[in-house]
Amino acid sequence: MLRPAPIVWIAGAWLLATVAAHRFPQLPSAAWCAPLLIAALLALPSALVRPLLVAAIAAAWTCWCASERLAERLPPAALGADFELTGIVTSFPSAAPGQITFGLDVAEPRPPGVPPRVRLTWYDAPAGVGPGNALAVTARLRPPRGLHNPGGFDYEQWLLVNGYGATGYVRSGAVRTAGDGGIETRWRRYRGVLAERIGAASSDSDGAALLTALALGERFRFKEQHWADFRRTGTSHLVAVSGMHVALLGVVAFVLVRWIWLRLPVPLSSFDLEVAAGAILPATSYYAALTGYAVPAQRSLVMIAIALAATLSRRRLGATQVVAATLVAVLVFDPFAPLAASFWL
To answer: Within a 13 Å sphere around the CA of 105, how many CA atoms are in the beta-carbon half?
Structure first.
């Protein structure tokens, strides 16, 4: 009887424990986690119960990450209070008549109780509010909340998954002149510049919206009529940058670079796999970063890295093992990933 590779049952146990931890009505305290880990360690010599150790570690990791994120939420006592905030716009603003909604990374030092990231609505906002821009605003905040109708969109869960600890609206503010900032800030600004260039290069607003979605994974230019057309034609999935887009770019880069390298003299051509692998990872990493590192892009990028490692080692690695290793890596990096539909799709 064939036994699955260790990474396969590790991935299965980790996934089940992560999903189960998210279903807890309330997070267990450390007093419960410690005995569970001790019991799992005592059972380690038995191969039949080793998955319990993996599950215990996964559940403890997920609960710890969840408790840290919940601790960052705005306390209920601060409901409706005004705060003076400075920070960097994290996302492309979603526009509606007379208003925009965007994420803001609050700069240090933060006012007491204010979380690191908030989601704000700005009525009659000035020009220049875009990703990577610095703002100084007076905002009225409240803890995250949302409707949770059966089969409907869970807005509060979406806020949790994306790290928003409060929502609110801007009472007054202005765009600030800031320096270059860190690498992340400059990259956000770069994505904003690319979106502007795409819009300027296209004379058709529908075409600009589609190109922006396919190139940057951003759909802020779509209007309700666009979504109605996509739903009617069943093509909504085509405007979301998925792992397939990243994988296709990787395949093209790998085949092209290897084809070129094999035509070099013999001492150099023997390193075709190493050179092709060295080219594909930066190319796919760049595109994944360009699309904002969504969960499908992360998953595809990890899969490519694992497959390239197996290729460079000249070892055969089954598809199941690659998927399992990718699953563990994604869940360790982001234990909230199973709460997003794109994780399962």
So the answer is: 15
C-alpha–C-alpha distance, residues 4 and 318, integer Å: 11
Alpha carbon distance 35, 273 (integer Å): 48
Find, among 73, 223, 63, 68, the residue nearest to 159 by Cα: 73
Q: What are the CA-CA distances from residue 156 to residues 115, 153, 169 (Å)?
A: 15, 9, 17
Neighbour count for residue 103 (Cβ, 10 Å):
21
Q: Which of 269, 76, 289, 328 is nearest to 338 (CA)?
A: 328
Distances (CA, A) of 128 to 93, 131, 177, 192, 290: 11, 9, 11, 11, 21
Note the Cα 25 to chain centre separation in Å.
Answer: 25
Alpha-carbon dihedral sign for residues 18, 23, 27, 30: negative
Give the gyration radius of the chain's Cα atoms.
23
Structure tokens at 132: 């990577």
DSSP 30-92: HHHHHHHHHHHHHTTT-GGGHHHHHHHHHHHHHHHHHHHHHHTSPPGGGTT-EEEEEEEE-SP
Joined tokens for residue 2: 């064939």
User: CB of 230 within 8 A of CB of 236?
Assistant: yes
Q: Which tens digit of pLDDT belongs to each residue from 271-318?
A: 777 788 778 888 888 888 887 777 677 777 877 887 777 777 766 667
Whole-prediction pTM: 0.77
How would you classify residue 98: left for phi > 0, otherwise alpha for psi between -120 and 50, otherwise beta?
A: left
Residue 162: exposure state from Cβ atoms within 10 A (0-12, 13-18, ≥19): middle
How many residues are listed for the chain in this entry? 345
